[in-house]
Amino acid sequence: MGGMRNQPIPHAAIGYPPVPAIQGFQQGYREPFQPPQGPPQFGGPHGPPGGIPGVPVPAMNPGPSPAIPGSVVMVYGLDKNVNCDGLFNLFCSYGNVLKVKILVNKKGTAMVHLDNPTAAKNAIQFLSKCVLFETELELA
pTM higher than 0.70, yes or no? Predict the structure, then answer.
C-alpha cells in the first residue's frame, strides 16, 4: 500500500473532470525569464512616449493651484490651541480644503483656501460667531 502514495489519482475516481491540456505547456517545465531587450519603452501600444499623439502631457509638479477669487477665508480670533489639522477638520464639512495656513506674524489669524467660492461662502455663513476653545471666530 505504501507504493500507492505517489501514484496520481485518476480524476474520475475523485469525482472531478480531467483538466484540459494547455497547448505548449509541459508539466514541470517553465520558460526561463527573459528581460526585455533594448531601451525601456514608454507610452505603450497607444502612442509614442508621453501618451496619446496630439494630447499635451501635464507637468509632473504643477505647483500650488492659484486661488479662485472668493475661495480664501480669513479666520480671526483663534485660540492658541488651534492648529492646521483642527481648522482643516472644521472647514472640510463645507468643501474641499486645499490649504490651511496659520499666520505667525498676526496672532490668532489663519487663511483657509477652499476649492470654490460657494464652499467659502457657506463656511463664512455657518462658522461666523461660533465659539471655538472659548473664543468667538470671525470669518471674512
Answer: no
